[in-house]
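Structure, all two chains, one model.
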Amino acid sequence: MPKLIPQADDLSRPFWNGVNQKKLILQHCTDCDKLQYPVKTNCYHCSSSDNLNWKEVSGRGYIRSAIVIEDGRLDRRMPDQPYNLAVISLDEDPTINFYSNLPGVEAYKAPIGSSVEVIFEEVAPGQLIHEWTLVH
Amino acid sequence: MITEIDNSWKRDSDGLGVWEHRGKVAIAGFGHSPVDRRWDEVSLDTTLGAYAILACQKAMDDAGLKPEDIDGIVCCPTTIAGNSGGTASNWAPRPYFDPPFDSEQGITRVNADWLIQQLGLHNVKFAPASAPTISEMVGLASQAVGDGLCTNCLMIYPTGNLTGRYRRGGPNASDMAPGESQWTFPWGNHGGNDFINIFPHQEYCRKYGGEHDDVAPFVLNQHRNGLMTPWGFNYQNDIPQLTKDDYLTSRYILRPLRLWDCDRPVNAAGAYLFTTSERAQDMKQKPVYVLNHSEHNFPFKTTQPTLDEIEMWTDKTAERMYEGSGLTASEVDIFNPYDGYSIMSQFFLEAFQWHGVNRGDAFAFYDGDITVEGPHPFCSSGGNLGNGRTRTAMYTDSIEQLRGTAGARQVTVKAETALCAFTTPSSGGWLMLGNSPD
């Protein structure tokens, strides 16, 4: 069963356009030199809105924490249950995190602390999402 | 009538000092409807609206007031089934009933206007529309009375639940993930307190030692307290005491989060009567004084809050609450933090350092004597876990403990001050109460 399909809006469209080109690009505040994800209208750190640009990141991180969804509420994901839901911290800035279902990792077997790298997965024709896979 | 207000009433920043109305506002009454698992979709005397009316009448009776005495009303315009409730949150498109149940108002929602009409509250001059949760409503009612915007303020919190699985449907049944959900839904996170807290809880177990099931003694004690709470779901429905085996064999929802770490959605309403301390002296009950209220809404830095952030946020709320009330941790007798999921209560316990519990100490504390008869009567209300998702238990128990009318739950230690909350680590609010205005 496919995953839910993200609907880009004006603010997030550059991010999803990057994902669709298999690039992980995050907002970067040139005022305070901080990255942020998800996208926001202002910089979380310095509140600036004028100098939020986009910056491609390495797409490397590690598994910070993980659970297994056995009884979630999303209709579209129910056939997948049980499945991993991990929190991935980004190497460039470990305070930035992403969700991942850890494709290729059996449910209940998420190796906390392990290195991962970004991959891209099609959830609808022409729409990719960012996912994370173990680095072997 | 609707009173337009902004957010300036909130006490939601650092360094505000002692609350200017400390001890000058009191809770003089409360009332609860019966607590049903769901509305049966037939009986008009058990609708959410009928229950809200009943709770208000009981609160007024408790204080010894009549509808004409009420000049303020704070009511939650939505129910906790929320926007993603789908079939669980809307009666439409099914036919409605005769007035006053001829719209969603009274069936799945209750607002101030509807209650003003049904209860004949003709002297209301303060009826704000924007108070989405009980944590903000108790703060708003306290501040409004203190500021003189009203004198006798009814605060009503209805919690609806219809047939069908809770919060199924709506956006949760969609194939698309718009708005904020674009960052969470594709990977299976439908949002909520369970997701916010389960990852930090996992980090907590790794950082301080212990495992998830170490919360079991706390959950069991919440159920035990609930069975001593006549206005709660478990007591009213003869729910058997949860056993450790029940807990340890219960199915997982978000593993390691188990079924019994979750609270039971219910159909019910609770109401409270806030007034000035001066007026409260002449009312029926011993006044319970408001010593401070505090609200918080910390923005997420990234997708998922971490343990570090949760600890920072809860430390900050504790600091604000103690500063505003002029009390210290050792001066708090009753402590009723939120438990609607079990996995976050330790964050509050340790932030407020109640009974000397510091970071990483909660599981050992749970394993000690936390019964209401013992020296550390943690969550004497039984909370949501022991009473259903009314989100009122923490407040009502605190009032009863300070009045000395908690019955079988009455603690054996001193009960002169109480901290209570509906809150998550990131958003919500706290209320400090005392049986003296000083």
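The longest strand of chain A covers residues 60-69.
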